[in-house]
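Lecture 7 notes. Example A: sequence first, then its structure tokens.
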Amino acid sequence: MKVSLKMLAPVLGLALSSMALADGPNPREVYVKSISHGGTGCPQGTVGTYISDDGKVFTLSFDQYSASQSRGSDPAKARSYCNLGLELNIPQGWQFSIFKIDYRGYANLDAGLSGVIQSSYRFSGGASTPVLRQTLSGPVATDYLKTDNIGISSLVWSPCGVTRALNIKSEVRLEGDRARSGLMTVDTIDGEFKQIYALQWRRC
């Protein structure tokens, strides 16, 4: 599926940066090889994928990544999730870890209703970070920003000498009075939703 950047409404972006890495790996050797996805918020056929020519940035556009409810609606619609698998090319002799991630989205919630966005990160076969969560309480109708700052003690480092996917789990859901109406989505009202992944490096 071909996706124009101008057409990307909800988006998920990844920036692989070599900033402040004086003794880090050659940035030309670090890039996204492929992306897989699955979940109620990103089933097959509903996601547009863009990867820059140098593999440093990717963008995913979503058609169905939202949680909503109203009186009498299906409770299952009040939760939506997306699992991503990123295969990255990493130079030999280096490990990396995510340490900061920004999420942007939109929430419209009645009083008595809360919206939750949460995320966690894990390399295949390894331990996961704690679940990182942000809650918005109604009444509210606003864009939101969620920033994950993962402390040194919680860093999840890539394995040395092997290639494994980086798994990213994210979720939006509504909690509270089932008679209230609400919407929480990964689509901002101005058509932009980004997650920017900064990488921290160390030698094996």
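Example B, a different protein, same format:
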Amino acid sequence: MAALTQERNTPFSFGESLLIPAKAAEVIFAGALVARDANGEAVNAADTADLKVLGRCEETVDNTNDGKSVKIKRGPFWFDNDGNITNAHLGLNATVLDNQTVSLASVTTNDVVAGKILAVDPALGVLVDTRFA
């Protein structure tokens, strides 16, 4: 397509929800941090190479028998802090330690970005916006 030469009514979508096929034999619990693997399938987020965080799992999916999809919501969610994230890290990227815990790139091996750090609370953990993963 060529560049615009007049105004365009560009369609808009919030993009807050996704439905992604789950990896075979994967069990993803509601509330878990979800990523996609290199094949585009939903898996539990982990400090594993080639994962891309998508958001939070909306309902538990047991794909033991294959063929199921995962409902994922994107946005800010509270995840556990491994103890390394402080208010000094606000606005920086949190990285995935496991499907409920975030850390910093200096701690994790594969630096899988969970999203932007918005807040840190001793009781709640780390508020991470997964839309920026």
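Note on Example B: The chain has no helices and twelve strands. The chain has a mean pLDDT of 95.
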